Amino acid sequence: MIILGIETSCDETAAAVVKEGTVILSSVVASQIEIHHRYGGVVPELASRKHIEAIVPVVGETLNKADLTLKDIDAIAVTRGPGLVGALLVGFSFAKACAYALDIPWVGVNHLEGHINSVFLETDPPSFPFVALLVSGGHTSIYHVTSHTTMELMGQTRDDAAGEAFDKVAKMLELGYPGGVVIDRISRAGDSDRIKFPRSYLDKSGFDFSFSGLKTAVNRYILNHKDHIKDQIPDIAAGFQEAVMDVLCYKVLHAAMRKSCDRIALVGGVAANSRLREKLRFDAQDKGVCVHIPSSHLCGDNAAMIAGIGYHYLKAGIVSGLQDDVFSRSR
Ligand code: KG4
Ligand code: ZN
Question: To test the ligand 1 pocket, which listed residue (88, 109, 164, 166) has its Cβ within 8 A of the most ligand atoms?
């Protein structure tokens, strides 16, 4: 089955063609960073308008790259949510109209399930069950995953998502948007032991997160040292990053132990973070746990993961209809 995946939940217009749910024939991601950069965050109305301009060329480029035409597509999978409603509507309406015109099945899928299934686009995916840490700009959650489409939420952030904290701290340090990748890079020149920020474990036996206190601590530090902050930016970035990573690694490994599970998947935009990839692999090795992390280009929002999860919905007989919209539950 050849599936066209479409993703427009936030600030990336993405399309991909995926065979049998795992083989990526092509994947195109058109980022809107340039547009939102000057505002220090995503402006929803601008995102929707940009998706409208980009969706047709992005799908065209994806098909070209795979050397296919729309006639070769067997089904379409599109992100239904969660995300910015105006942005979601563009991809969703496009997919609905396209499937209707081609008379092929289509399905609206959950973006988070897409991220979790991104590990199956790699050659060495985990077997079920496994524990997944999903860390993105909108979510920080731990799941016990028992099949492609069945997962139990074990814990989640009570305030900011980890990626959101990265973006906000980068803004405080005037490093631009999105901040995660900049903090990742700048931290390499810093010393994470020089400035110690608090680790918020909440209840150490539970799996919820909280990053707002850490964000406030960084802000307070910046205000108290504003006269010579420039020289300290790498150390602040490294200290902040390490505080986030300590908690993420502790909680996901603890969750794996709780479920007597020796497999972890690390997914979502923040999974591209070099320190997190290195630290989780290192900490997990100690506990005999195997860590599965997609390549960096599959961590951020992309449409290959949407086609990937769409394959499993369609195989299970789950399809969407003309009456569905981004508020409908597809299952
Ligand atoms: O999964 P994603 O592309 O979009 C959402 O579904 O939210 O995640 C975007 C988030 C942003 O907050 C971005 O700053 C963060 O992922 N991010 C990173 C890195 N690359 C992207 N955070 C830390 N280190 C990175 N290398
Ligand atoms: Zn995402």
Answer: 166
